[in-house]
């Protein structure tokens, strides 16, 4: 535990005090952690490489294609059109709540990283056009995305936990929505009231000049193209949930519903609807896509560095020591689940790894004790897996780099929001446990 703490402190000092590039800092700390935690010299490099490859293998396609789609949505004027429609409907006064509602709705079927890179252009379009504080407007929407990622099926973490605890998917989703709504409101719009004066100059790649009305794509075109990934995932989830029998059509739907395939189809459609159809040449579109990838290249490396650090800690077996210590304590099972997930999350950075690891430890306990509600255990662990996002979490760096914040202000905004979500989520689970 002391070694983990010292490594995290070293990482923070290298990035914030020494001003070292975060990717290099991750590599240095990952190797140092491997040495201190007793990983053989011949295997430390392998752990780092496996961590880099594992996280990039999952995220590179999604983030790159999402950045391209986001850049096109911004440059084509589609984000501007969507923002205008939302503001006209809700009014500037309530635009923050409108964005929160959109974030929650699309967050249920959409993987977090896809939702993030899709919604950033919309957030920034509202920020630039109406001269609003970026963090104040953007954080509540991202709080909605984060809650759905941690609490609600069909996201990977909650879905895995539902299976491990033999919980009911529908019941977990229903309870999850009941817990999610107050968590989003309090950690989103309410907490964001304290961030109105936080300085932020968001990533320039998504900043586009206001286009004249006659140059903007239509409202239906803008909404449908921007939300096409959501539509595809929702449709496939409904079909796969209704038809369980194996068939060629079901196999095809499973393939088409995979995140990278969904993003590729969406980008191909957007290339026509927001590009070719709008009389934009393929050369210009190619430049837009190249610029988008250049702008997120460092973000990818930073996330990869976080993956390397996580893998070194996992390979050292330190998560097993943490869990052995906690399971020897006698406490409320739902609170224990939250605490296990929280400590592993703080140590390793990955919400999904934290949730699944905590569930593995508590699986037999939940199976043997009928007084433990398995649906609430899914939510309790999901809430704990979101707490205290910091420098070993890819989401921390996504938010910092996209919103161009200092380390300190990222802690004061993003880390605080995630921690509030986790604590409020636990409170909601304990209240539900008293009635169900």
Automatic annotation (TrEMBL):
Keyword Cell membrane among record annotations: yes
Listed transmembrane segments: 28-44, 56-74, 94-127, 134-152, 172-195, 216-240, 252-275, 296-314, 334-362, 374-391, 411-435
Localization, UniProt: Cell membrane
One GO MF term: gluconate transmembrane transporter activity
Annotated Pfam families: GntP_permease
Chief location: membrane
Record's GO cellular component terms: plasma membrane
UniProt keyword annotations, A-Z: Cell membrane, Membrane, Transmembrane, Transmembrane helix, Transport
Keyword Hydrolase recorded: no
Tree of life domain: Bacteria
Membrane topology, record value: Multi-pass membrane protein
Protein family membership: Belongs to the GntP permease family.
The name this protein goes by in its record: Gluconate transporter
């Amino acid at each position: 535990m002391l070694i983990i703490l010292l490594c995290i402190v070293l990482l923070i000092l290298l990035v914030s005090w020494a001003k070292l590039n975060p990717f290099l800092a991750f590599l240095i700390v990952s190797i140092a952690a491997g040495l201190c935690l007793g990983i053989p010299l011949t295997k430390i490099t392998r752990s780092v490489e496996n961590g880099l490859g594992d996280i990039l293998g999952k995220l590179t396609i999604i983030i790159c294609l999402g950045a391209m789609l986001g850049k096109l949505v911004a440059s084509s004027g589609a984000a501007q059109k969507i923002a205008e429609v939302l503001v006209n409907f809700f009014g500037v006064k309530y635009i923050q709540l409108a964005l929160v509602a959109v974030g929650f709705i699309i967050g249920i079927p959409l993987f977090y990283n896809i939702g993030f890179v899709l919604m950033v252009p919309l957030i920034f379009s509202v920020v630039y056009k109406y001269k609003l504080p970026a963090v104040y407007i953007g954080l509540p929407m991202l709080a909605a995305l984060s809650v759905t990622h941690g609490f609600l099926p069909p996201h990977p973490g909650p879905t895995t936990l539902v299976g491990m605890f033999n919980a009911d998917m529908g019941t977990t989703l229903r309870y999850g929505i009941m817990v999610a709504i107050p968590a989003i409101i309090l950690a989103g719009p309410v907490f964001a009231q304290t961030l109105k004066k936080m300085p932020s100059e968001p990533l320039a790649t998504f900043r586009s000049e206001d286009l004249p009305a006659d140059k903007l794509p239509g409202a239906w075109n803008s909404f449908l193209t921007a939300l096409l990934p959501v539509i595809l995932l929702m449709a496939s989830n409904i079909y796969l949930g209704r038809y369980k029998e194996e068939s060629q059509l079901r196999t095809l739907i499973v393939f088409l519903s995979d995140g990278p395939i969904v993003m590729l189809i969406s980008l191909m459609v957007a290339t026509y609807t927001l590009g070719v159809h709008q009389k934009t040449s393929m050369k210009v579109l190619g430049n837009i896509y190249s610029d988008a990838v250049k702008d997120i290249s460092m973000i990818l490396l930073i996330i990869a560095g976080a993956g390397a650090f996580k893998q070194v800690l996992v390979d050292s077996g330190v998560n097993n020591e943490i869990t052995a210590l906690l399971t020897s304590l006698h406490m409320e099972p739902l609170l224990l689940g939250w605490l296990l997930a929280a400590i592993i999350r703080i140590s390793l950075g990955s919400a999904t790894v934290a949730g699944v690891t905590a569930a593995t430890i508590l699986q037999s306990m939940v199976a043997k004790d009928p007084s433990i509600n398995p649906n609430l255990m899914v939510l309790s662990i999901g809430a704990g897996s979101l707490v205290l996002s910091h420098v070993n979490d890819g989401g921390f760096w996504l938010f910092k780099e996209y919103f161009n914040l200092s380390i300190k202000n990222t802690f004061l905004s993003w880390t605080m929001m995630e921690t509030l979500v986790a604590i409020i989520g636990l409170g909601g689970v304990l209240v539900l446990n008293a009635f169900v």
